[in-house]
Amino acid sequence: MASITLDKLAHSYLPNPQTDADFALKELDYKWEDGGAYALLGPSGCGKTTLLNIISGLLVPSKGHIRFDGQDVTHLQPEERNIAQVFQFPVIYDTMTVRQNLAFPLLNRHVPQDEITRRVNDMIEVLDLADKADRRARGLTADEKQKISLGRGLVRYDVNAILFDEPLTVIDPHMKWQLRTKLKDLHRQLGHTMIYVTHDQTEALTFADRVVVMYEGEVVQIGTPEELFNEPAHTFVGYFIGSPGMNVIPCEISGKTARVGDIQIGLSGGYAVTGAKTELGIRPEFVSLSSDSSGHPVQIEAVENIGRFKIVRASLQGHAINALLKENEEVPADPTLSFEAGRINVYENSHLVRPGA
Amino acid sequence: MDKPYNNKAWFLVIPVFLLVALSAIIPIMTVINYSFQDTFGNNQFFWAGTEWFQDVLHSDRFWNALGRNLVFSMIILSIEIPLGIAIALTMPKKGIWVPVCLVLMALPLLIPWNVVGTIWQIFGRADIGLLGHTIEQLGFEYNYASNVFDAWVTIILMDVWHWTSLVVLLCYAGLVSIPEAYYQAAKIDGASRWSVFRYIQLPKIRGVLIIAFLLRFMDSFMIYTEPFVLTGGGPGNSTTFMSIDLVKQAIGQFDLGPAAAMSLVYQLIVLTICYVFFTVMSNVGVDKPDARVED
Lengths: 357, 295
Prior knowledge:
The complex is a heterodimer. Chain A is an alpha+beta fold.
């Protein structure tokens, strides 16, 4: 187990990267604490797998260093880094039994035989594979196979970190939930540093203590699930996390008011923003719909009932905006919108601006 | 609800049926017909019963040819399969050399059997052939026309040169389809090069290997053209394989009955061996559905 330090790390798949756009992973400084559960969250192609492969040693970064507990491992091979990785598609050794699969990494490391037997038996217990232990791995279901590939990492008690590369992609939905719970349990029991790559916000938010959100090769925010929800540091985070995502509306800001088209919206504090692109961000949860004349008149475009609540898609001064209604609330006849002032975030060039700054 | 029912589908099967009839059923029935009768030309046939079959099974000539065939196939398989796997493993998986390698590998496969025979027949001659001349110059006796060992070596070399590519291409196709994650996982598990081959590559190319094995077995077991072009089955009868013997009997001696009986026995042997190979190889390393489940 170890802490992982990323020191001015950047990677490009091109031989001679010139501009920022050439980098699949833009320069990044961060420290993953020992024993933490982290998620790397972002859409496909945002560089999260690149970052994971750099940590595991399958890729050597173009720039910067990576340290495990202070020791530079940038140029070490994967097997020398003592990490484990679980891939998107379950990787198992077809011809071996479940037991042999779990013993394989230990055999390769010349662990004494009785120690191997003991650890493999423990692991079979932990993974609930006791009834399949002597079956060949080939015929197992996808989630059992994925457990085995996880187990091959966990049998090595001293692994520095366990990396997950979208491990639940090929798992049936009802098994996903179980396997995720299992992962969380194992993290609590064994206390390994775990890094989990996913594009599924539910997986990221339920698994991780801290979530690293990536967008176009850049880390746009690192925070707890609450922070990501309440104060997205970037409009992308607001949009990507939450269902539906945050409303982002272009506006002009002067002091404590924001102007959107013809209407003025009160803010909780004063903002000193320059003339650059400014936007308001507010989550649909904090937009309320009523017939109160103090609100801002809107046109309703559509209402989607998704059971527990309804998503109202409306148009405010020509900008699309979503609001949530409880399932028993009706859309009023002459609807107006109002915002919870304290929940409005202001963005300048897509980045969060704090009031009074 | 009534199902619409008509016999139109039978019309659609007719082309296939005709094709199979012309290419397989009619020829085989003809052969079976010959194998139970004796003929002296003029389309006169006399019932012979199982006489020809007994003759074939009691003739040394047949057993000798069968033995030669089995030895030849075993040698061919034990060279071409490992060599083919080895070459496939060393071929690049991406980059500009991939098409170059593939074309080079495919070239021998495009050359007709008799041309291969002719090439090697000339290649191996001591007077004008590069191979034969070089060996002679190195001080070794080499003459495929008079020395049994030399004739066998030449035919085996010829076959290896001609057909190893097939094994290579099949294995290569199997190897490139292995996802990169397997190699990465093996790296992380600290697997040696040999373990990667034994536990990842070999199980993954198993399917194509079975095909390669069967194709090479069937083809080498039915070898005809190469030894025929090289020495016509000689020196003596040393390279007279079953197919050559068959042609000698059927066309050389015009013994249609014995030849037909022999070809049926030959066919049965090929079928049986292929079936056994396929069954055994498909079941190696595969669990029966409920086997070894602990309760």
